[in-house]
Amino acid sequence: MASSVNPTVRRRRLGQELRKLRELKGMTAEEVAERLLVSQSKISRLENGRRSISQRDVRDLCSVYGVEDHRIVDSLMQMAKESRQQGWWHAFGDIPYSVYIGLETDAASLRVYEASLVPGLLQTPNYASAVTEGSWPEATVSDVERRVQVRMRRQERITDSDNPLRLWAVIDESALRRIVGSNAIMREQMEHLVEFSLRPHITVQVLPYAVGAHPGMYGKFSILEFHDPQDASTVYLEGITSDLYLEKPNDVQAYSVMYEHLRMQALNAEDSRRFILQVAEDWAAADNGS
Questions:
Q1: Do 154 and 253 share a domain, yes or no?
Q2: What mean pLDDT value characterizes the chain?
Q3: Are 203 and 171 within one domain?
Q4: CATH number at residue 207
Q5: Which of 68, 109, 185, 278 has the smallest count of CB within 10 Å of its CB?
Q6: Do you know which CDD domains this protein is assigned to (predicted)?
Q7: What are phi and psi of 110, to 5 degrees?
């Protein structure tokens, strides 16, 4: 559930404000880096919210930008202080996609396209465990348990009765047909998908094989949108060793258009439920050996 102070979101907002101050000053990131005797990449990471920022960094940057209004400086310093607090996910140790979790925790809506797996927010514990074991062969038992616990904790956003995350998921048929764990686990996962798809704030659509070629064939992606207009919509692309976050309006628009094409090509919500129920029956039959 979203907390009153989300460090990831605070870093993003603070970075946006610092970028505005730099641009108003007419300086490049390289020029600022030279003045502060730091690398240009540090300035870029501070501005895009991917790096923790100290109050000292804020003070130094405000000095370079000639900010004389103490109220602005104090406000930015407070944001820096809040941005260094720890979110709930830090209690689980080193999570590679912690930046994404911070954004997801504060998002108002999420549109996700998945090509090979059931989306994490809709996974059962058994399916999540089997996915982790299969995709991370060197993981220990405790590693798997920790990842599953994080995934289940993330799901509080879609079960929160007061402020649920608006979730729209387009799932390729291959994600429903690929056996993960066992036939029984797949049957359970399909039934779970149908159950959650009945919630008013969750829409699940299946993109069947019969559609043929489609815009999502290059891979999965997510689009996050936020309540606060200051928080730019973000496209999230998950990688093996690093992730990519796209915030430029043209990038977000391109992926949004792509998502609309996927939604239009996919089965509607009701037909998708019937399709998933049939797949669940197929898994049940396979489990019974018939």
A1: yes
A2: 89
A3: yes
A4: 3.30.870
A5: 68
A6: HTH_XRE
A7: -140, 125
With a cut of 90, say whether residue 223 has pLDDT above it.
yes
Question: Residue 97: what residue type?
Answer: Y
> Of 23, 51, 83, which residue is a domain's last?
83
Q: How many domains, in total, are found in the chain?
A: 2
CA dihedral 241, 260, 105, 156 (to 10 degrees): -110
What is the domain extent for residue 64?
9-83
Assess if residue 4 is contained within a domain.
Answer: no
d(CA 12, CA 100): 12
* 83-118 pLDDT tens trace: 777 677 667 767 777 778 888 988 999 999 999 999
Residues 30 and 116 in one domain: no
Contact criterion met (CB below 8 Å) for 124 and 185: yes
Residues 198 and 244 in one domain: yes
Which CATH number is 25's domain given?
1.10.260.40
**Burial readout 174-192 (b: 16 or more C-beta within 10 A, e: otherwise):** ebbeeebbebebbbbbbbb
Q: 281-284, long-range: CB within 8 Å, 24+ apart, which pairs? A: 283/183, 283/184, 283/186, 283/187, 283/190, 284/183, 284/187
pLDDT at residue number 75: 85
pTM attached to this predicted model: 0.80
Summarize pLDDT for 122-167 with one digit per residue, the tens.
Answer: 999 999 999 999 998 998 999 999 999 999 999 999 998 888 999 9
My answer on whether 100 and 79 are in the same domain is no
Q: Where are the beta strands (DSSP E) in the chain?
A: 107-114, 166-172, 202-207, 221-226, 234-237, 244-246
